[in-house]
Amino acid sequence: MFIAILEIGAIGLILGLAIGVASKYLEVKAHPLVQAVYDELPHFNCGACGTPGCMANADEIVNKNQPLSSCKPGDAAMRKRIQTLLDDYKDGKLKFDE
Amino acid sequence: MSDLLALAFTSFLVQNIILNQFLGICSFLGVSNKRDKALGMGLAVFFVITLSGMMTWAIYDFILSPTAFNNNTDLTFMRTIVFILVIAAMVQILEMAIKKFSPGLYSALGVYLPLITTNCAVLGVALLNIQYSFTFVETIVFSAFTSLGYTAVIFTFSFIREQMVKAPIPAGFKGIPVGLVAASIMAFIFKGFAGLI
User: Fold this and answer.
1) Whole-Å CA distances, A49 to A68, A76, A84, B28, B151
2) Is B92 on the interface with A (CB under 8 A)?
3) pTM (predicted TM-score)
């Protein structure tokens, strides 16, 4: 049994390292505003908003005017924080280092 | 050599993964409505099946099988979980690569790209390689031509789907239902290849 645990652990470790290295080289920078909105979303990836996940929904909120209420698990406080982010960015109060 | 040719031909046409073994139907119906999407999906599946087939064969023979390490511990019961681990990692890396090099294809494939992990065609080929006790070369040929069969069928089917949009189809049959009817007729046609070998 210990051999089984060791082997599956070793395989998992090697694959995990491979993914880690690959994510370093294949990283795609998201727009910082999309990233900021994503950080506020619940990260459930439930799909209730109609997009494949929270990252996709953050993208739609920023670029396609998806209503904030589309996020079903999110509460009023979350919507308020995201709305502040969007308003601040529009007014030029919020700036990102590009 | 002729054995390998026969194996390639069988896995590509006669034992076609979609139309004869009915594996991988989900993505077959899901992304076959546009031909560039279908081709992208087919190539992604070709890449994943061929590489994961080779990797799972090596892991099974050199790590899990009783003859590995000469210590007679039989770990073959772990093959399902280990294979899924390998396939999931491969799909993850492929997803990152497509996201970086082809963002258009990435958003077109959408949720079907991570779902290659649960595409039963991928796990099916990995397990069939073991079940038929193939050698390494046979594994490569079988995996590559099975997945090319998938690519060929999904690409052909996307042309039919594109034309079907223009046809006057009753509302209840539009989309997936008439797609399944067309797929079944294609499966009948592919049965005709059974007499070749």
Assistant:
1) 9, 16, 20, 25, 32
2) yes
3) 0.79
User: Mind telling me how many Å the CA of B115 is from chain A's nearest CA?
Assistant: 11
Question: Which phi and psi angles does A78 have, rounded to 5°?
Answer: -65, -45
Distance, in Å, from the CA atom of A88 to the CA atom of A72, rounded to the nearest integer, reads 24
Task: Give pLDDT tens digits for A63-81.
Answer: 888 888 888 888 888 889 8
What confidence tens digit (pLDDT) does each residue in B51-106 have?
Answer: 999 999 999 988 888 877 766 777 888 889 999 999 999 899 988 888 888 888 88
Mutate to test the interface with B, among A1, A8, A45, A54 (most CBs of B within 10 A): A8
Per-residue model confidence (pLDDT) at position A97: 63
What number is the ipTM of this complex? 0.72
Give the residue among B26, B29, B6, B53 at the shortest CA–CA distance from B147. Answer: B53
Measured between CA atoms, the residue of chain B closest to residue A24 is: B96
Within 10 angstroms of residue B61's Cβ, the number of other Cβ atoms is: 16
State the Cα torsion B146-B148-B149-B153 to the nearest 10°. Answer: 150
Q: Cα B115 to the chain's mean position, in Å?
A: 12
Q: How far is B151 from chain A (nearest CA, A)?
A: 24
Nearest to B100 among A7, A11, A26 (CB): A26
How far apart (Å, rounded) are the C-alpha atoms in residues B114 and B92? Answer: 7
